[in-house]
Design a protein that fits this description.
By secondary structure, the chain is α/β, with parallel strands linked by helices. It has one domain: Vaccinia Virus protein VP39 (Rossmann fold). Helix content is about 20%, strand content about 20%. The protein is built from 3 helices and 6 strands; from the N terminus they run αβββαβαββ. A 4-stranded mixed β-sheet has the order 3-4-6-5. Strands 1-2 form a two-stranded parallel ribbon. The longest helix has 14 residues. The radius of gyration is 14 Å and the shape is globular. The chain starts with 8 loop residues before the first helix and ends with a strand. The mean pLDDT is about 95.
Length: about 140
């Protein structure tokens, strides 16, 4: 699991101001953005999600599993109120069409996010929002 693309504080603060997150399912103790979080050892893919979730998933081949989990936890099982995902904008992938296109909202980020604080990411980003039915 690749966790070295830590969410920049400026990106998280803006989203948290709007959504008031309670869980970060893809974190390390050093990168966690919420009081409640799951580490790689706990494996957020195997946990039940709750509350208002902020997810910056590992950006490797496993990303589709994380988007599927976000979709199911929120839209199908209704375990969490919402899931906000910070992801690469990869509109040509299966996971994008299978899950992102079912989101309640997709926000394309203008410009490139600076994940390390210095250099812009080599890809565009999007914020994808899943809301539980009735929210």
């Amino acid at each position: 699991m690749r966790l070295d693309w830590k969410t920049p504080d400026y990106v998280f603060r803006e989203l948290d101001k709007e959504f008031h997150f309670t869980l970060d399912p893809c974190a390390t103790p050093e990168s966690a953005k919420c009081k409640n979080y799951f580490t790689p050892e706990q494996d957020g893919l195997k946990q039940r999600w709750f509350g208002r979730v902020f997810m910056n998933p590992p950006y490797g081949r496993e990303i589709g599993k994380w988007l599927r989990k976000a979709y199911y936890e929120c839209k199908v099982w209704g375990n969490c109120e919402l899931v906000v995902c910070l992801i690469p904008s990869r509109t040509d992938t299966k996971w994008w069409h299978n899950y992102v296109m079912k989101a309640d909202e997709i926000r394309f980020v203008v410009g490139r996010i600076k994940f390390d604080g210095k250099n812009p990411a080599p890809f565009p980003s999007a914020v994808v929002i899943f809301r539980r039915k009735g929210k």
